Amino acid sequence: MLSIPLHTPFVTALRRTSTIDTLIVSLELADGTTGLGEAPQVWAVTGDSVASAAACVEQVLAPVLVGADSDDWDVLAAEVARACARNFGAKAAVETALLDAVARASGMPLAHLFADVAGVPRPVSRGVGLGGEGLGGGAVGVVGVGVAGGGAAAVFEVATDVTISAGSPEALRSAAQARVAEGFTRLKLKVGTDAATDVARVRAVREAAGPDIGVRLDANQGWSREDAVAVIRALAEADLGVEIVEQPVAGEDVEGLAWVRERVDLPIMADETVYGATDLERVIRLEAADAVNVKLAKCGGPLTGLRLLARAREAGLGTMVGSMMESHVGVATAASMVAAVGTSAVSDLDAAWWATHSPYAGGPTYGPGVIRLPEAHGLGMALV
């Protein structure tokens, strides 16, 4: 169990936190190869805690794997998924640890294993674009996989936005200026705390960031249906260059999400509305969103995540991979998925950037607007 301080409080319409609180699962194969997985504490979204994830892993999921043949890892992963209801963070941690160990034992990066599972060419560690169609007039841009410069070791490099926490217009203006100065080209602004003043917040960020920086919004379920329509229409009228609005209403209100989408022009993204395949099919059927944000701790692991991305693309929805407030293991796993199969929107993989330090040897690092994955076996990480 880890508790890692954040350099800046993380504030949304749902919660405020100053730490990453998370469970790290370590799995060892018979040959001694180990893998890591992560289950972040997300009381306000999934209801999972460190304690509940630990209990699920110890009492339910570990017995599925102990003594099993890791060559049948796909069968084992399916058994983990069926072992209990919900507990998505715990399932994601165990499944990731299993796949990390399998990839390490096979001598390949986790991104290569994900590409094999998805039936697509393996990504290479050089400047190859994995672009898709943009959202909101093409403003979301291209997801890239590249190589770090300056003589650095070969890496997979994936574009990411950075979050601007909810706050006053003045605080948001200052934060936006700082993030742009650090090289981020896309800002994800947390709104939904006060519909009456949210437009002023977005205007402050746009003025601070300038016209060339992508700005996207996440209301984290904070608006009513009516407030969502009023705010989104006002944003469009003000011509503030908003790319997309994420989860404007309560996650369970899929009909409300469709109601809002029908009445506004800006693209709508579903996040807390979509946990698994059944949720996604409901969104597709009701035409409730233009895009979907897939998160491992919300869907139960990378194998389900890959299926959700494929189904969303098939249905014509935009895609993004996001992160909870989690550490480098969870974020690196999500980034490996993006490196493997791409997304149509630049993903939201900044969670570990908020940490004051990494408790791991190896693993991802951040550059201007990107997260970099070492071209190591598996995730290439170990607890220190």
Describe the structure.
By secondary structure, the chain is an alpha/beta fold. The chain has two domains: 2-107, Enolase-like, domain 1 (2-Layer Sandwich); 128-383, Enolase-like C-terminal domain (TIM Barrel, Alpha-Beta Barrel). It is built from twelve helices and 17 strands. The strands form five sheets. It has a seven-stranded parallel sheet. Helix 6 runs parallel beside helix 7 (225-238). The chain is globular, with a radius of gyration of 20 Å.
Average the pLDDT over all residues and give the rounded result.
92
**Name of the CATH homologous superfamily of the largest domain:** Enolase-like C-terminal domain
Order of helices and strands: EEEHHHHEEEEHEHEHEHEHEHHEHEEEE
Q: What is the number of helical segments per DSSP (H or I, 4+ residues)?
A: 12
Number of domains: 2
> Beta-strand percentage?
15-25%
Low-confidence stretches: 126-134, 136-152
Tell me the CATH topology of the largest domain. Answer: TIM Barrel
Q: In angstroms, what separates the terminal alpha carbons? A: 13 Å
The whole-angstrom Rg is 20 Å
Shape, per Cα inertia axes: globular
CATH class of the largest domain: Alpha Beta
Named CATH architecture of the largest domain: Alpha-Beta Barrel
Strand line-up across the major sheet = 7-8-9-10-11-12-13
Count the E strands: 17
Structural class: alpha/beta
The largest β sheet comes out as: 7 strands, parallel
